[in-house]
């Protein structure tokens, strides 16, 4: 049994997680304050959240106060920088929703604090056309192109771009198990666990259309977040917005809408997706879905961290080993935007630039059958 490295925390001022809590979270709050004309009491709550030194629980009347009290047991009252990074990030987004009254009884209930930002990063008509044009290619070429579009689409992440300013266009897939991914699908159910809306969700939808129209999947479940999260993560409303972006008469848009109506494409969500947990702790209902699927495709950096555990693994740790517990075949499609990496060849990282784990310039397509 491999000894697990410790869970990542944010205490080292030179570390990436520290910069997320110190720089990115205040920048996100600034954007939220600009996005909506929130009333003074909401603005005050948001400012207090940014200034908070020690992690505080949700208000006692929150619908999920008890769950969060348990997840944070042992952490409450500690510095934000000293609790696990995954917990701190999740709590930040949950507390942000509390501050803006997302679950409250008032008039701002259900208003997505990140909605305007998501809308401003919508895919262009040219991007839609380029993806639609893939249909003219031989199927093997479509398979390869769709995996690439789906993995690089993950770079279009608003929370990430906010501080990175620009993203180097290096386009290097450090591991490419794309062919193995296609070998695993044979006409059953495929689950796609979505990450970001907009320019990431578009290639995901085109991939789903390909799965369904070629019979590689009889049924697809698209898992979305139950609440606004990590700025740009996709909710049901974002999927519906995205479908409306396909021009009238677009075959892909038409097929996807029909698939939703027929139930061959099903939208699904679970509270797990906004919880500070890894897939090791997925609820039985969710784990059962993964077990029953022919393949689960996990999109994005955060889902990768949830899959292998938010730990500073040596990069040569075998991916199959750390994902072996996942209840069914799994493919992780992710641009590398945080410290967690597994499955590289020994010594491979020596030739990479110093910032390779967080620059977003590198990506992984990793599969465990
Ligand atoms: O949208 P993605 O690919 O999950 O990326 C989100 C990533 O952004 C961060 O919050 C900050 O970079 C990471 O911690 C997280 O993994």
From TrEMBL:
Molecular function terms, GO-annotated: metal ion binding; phosphatase activity
Alphabetical list of Pfam families matching this protein: ARMT1-like_dom
Domain of life: Bacteria
Domain Damage-control phosphatase ARMT1-like metal-binding: 21-347
GO biological process, one term: DNA damage response
Keywords annotated in UniProt: Hydrolase, Manganese, Metal-binding
Keyword Secreted: no
Reactions this protein catalyses: beta-D-fructose 6-phosphate = dihydroxyacetone + D-glyceraldehyde 3-phosphate; beta-D-fructose 1-phosphate + H2O = D-fructose + phosphate
Membrane spanning residue stretches: none
Swiss-Prot/TrEMBL cofactor(s): Mn(2+)
Family: Belongs to the damage-control phosphatase family. Sugar phosphate phosphatase III subfamily.
Protein name per UniProt: Damage-control phosphatase ARMT1-like metal-binding domain-containing protein
Organism per entry: Dactylosporangium matsuzakiense
């Amino acid at each position: 049994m491999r000894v697990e490295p410790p869970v990542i925390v944010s205490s080292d001022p030179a570390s990436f997680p520290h910069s997320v809590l110190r720089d990115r979270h205040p920048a996100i709050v600034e954007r939220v304050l600009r996005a909506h004309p929130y009333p003074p009491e909401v603005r005050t709550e948001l400012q207090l959240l940014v200034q908070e030194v020690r992690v505080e629980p949700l208000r006692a009347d929150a619908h999920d106060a008890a769950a969060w009290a348990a997840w944070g047991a042992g952490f409450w009252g500690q510095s934000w920088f000293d609790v696990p990074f995954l917990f701190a990030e999740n709590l930040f987004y949950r507390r942000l929703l509390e501050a803006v009254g997302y679950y409250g009884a008032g008039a701002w209930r259900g208003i997505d604090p990140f909605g305007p930002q998501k809308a401003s990063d919508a895919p262009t008509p040219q991007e839609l056309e380029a993806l639609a044009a893939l249909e003219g290619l031989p199927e093997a070429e479509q398979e390869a192109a769709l995996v690439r579009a789906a993995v690089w689409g993950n770079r279009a992440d608003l929370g990430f771009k906010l501080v990175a300013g620009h993203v180097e266009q290096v386009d290097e897939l450090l591991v490419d198990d794309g062919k193995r991914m296609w070998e695993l699908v044979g006409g059953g159910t495929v689950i796609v666990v979505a990450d970001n809306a907009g320019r990431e969700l578009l290639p995901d939808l085109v991939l789903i259309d390909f799965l369904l129209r070629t019979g590689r999947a009889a049924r697809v479940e698209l898992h979305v977040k139950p609440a606004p999260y990590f700025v740009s993560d996709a909710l049901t409303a974002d999927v519906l917005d995205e479908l409306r972006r396909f021009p009238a008469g677009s075959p892909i848009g038409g097929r996807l809408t029909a698939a939703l109506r027929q139930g061959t494409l099903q939208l699904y969500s679970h509270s797990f997706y906004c919880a500070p947990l890894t897939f090791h702790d997925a609820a039985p209902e969710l784990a059962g879905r993964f077990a029953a699927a022919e393949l689960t495709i996990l999109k994005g950096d955060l889902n990768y961290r949830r899959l292998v555990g938010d730990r500073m693994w040596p990069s040569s740790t075998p991916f199959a080993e750390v994902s072996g517990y996942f209840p069914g075949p799994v493919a992780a499609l992710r641009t590398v935007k945080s410290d967690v990496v597994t499955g590289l060849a020994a010594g491979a990282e020596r030739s990479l630039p110093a910032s390779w784990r967080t620059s977003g310039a590198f990506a992984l397509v990793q599969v465990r059958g």
